[in-house]
From TrEMBL:
Source organism per UniProt: Daphnia magna
Highest taxon of the lineage: Eukaryota
Protein's UniProt name: Uncharacterized protein
Amino acid sequence: MQRILALKESNQLNKYHQQKYMSDNVNAIEEYISSLVLDYSRLLKMV
């Protein structure tokens, strides 16, 4: 019984870390895209 509870707990921790990793990735991608958009708009102003 104790082992089952330990497995369940580690499974939930793994899920949490996966979700955190995914959201960190999404944030990084959003930052990258917004910086690209900024660069592009600066280029357009130069022309």
